Amino acid sequence: MMGVWLVAFAASGAGSAQQSFPDRPVRVVIPYAAGSVADVFGRIVTQDMAAQWNGSIILESRSGANGSIAAEDVARAAPDGYTWLLVTTFFTTSPSLNITLRWDPVRDFIPIGQICQAPNFFIVPTSLPVNNVAEYVALARAKPGALNYGHPGKGSTGHLGFELFKRLAGIDVTPVGYRGYPQMVADISSGLINSTFLSANQALAQVQTGAIRIIGAIGDGRSKYFPDVPTMAEQGFAEAEVTPWFGIVVPAGTPQPIVDRISKALEAALATPQVREKLDLAGCAVKSAPLAQFAEIIKADTALWAKVVKDAGIPAD
Q1: pLDDT digit string, tens, across residues 295-312
Q2: The Cα angle at residue 314 between residues 313 and 315, in degrees rounded to 5
Q3: What are the residues facing 216 on neighbouring strands?
Q4: Other C-beta atoms lying within 10 Å of the C-beta of residue 60
């Protein structure tokens, strides 16, 4: 009888904790530096979620190892709903790029929901004599290995997305990796780098200098920022329409009622005009995908990037 009573008491305590969630500050781990786009997007949605709960959500930057430091931290955290991870491309590319990875995007996490998608743009310096993707491909085929492209790090969309485009186009373009965007942007403006994929905000800032040309939009449709620029699909490369997304996951084992509560708060935040406007201005269009739908996106992207890595012959670390 005592054992039955203890089990019942524990169950009732767990139920009470779930109903009162959150009753203390929530920690959201950002896998990049403070002030990064991931940090900005995370702050926009969590401020609204915290207001819904009249609670506190604290963002903590844990950059390094292409997001793995942050992911491992959250994967090992208590599955009580008080530790979240903001995820993006690294979350689905890491399994195929790191043979010693100590976390798994499917096994160790529960998806809460997607926040938004930040379309990229195919950029070349104005010194390169091409005005569209077809002309770029023709030049690359005429001079195999002579052109290059810059990317902000192994496993980024700028890296694997361009490798996917190369395979589809049947071209040989040399990758040049950077630790981030600042030096890469300067090198493409000078013509040292022949091409790259940039986000809307970065493209807007650089196109005004007159040093770069946008030859393709990488997204579901034409961008309101550059409405005259045709999409990759319009130019014959629909399979290269890979758009970076951002979302939230929690440790595996988090009780379903808490998962549902967090997901509903995220969906409510993304439905507000203020949050949608802020994300849009920051260069990330709201593209919500709750729970099961987000789980399918993660699985599909993990499989996609594994194939891209294999086809491109990119060695795992």
Answers
A1: 999 999 999 999 989 988
A2: 110
A3: 122
A4: 13
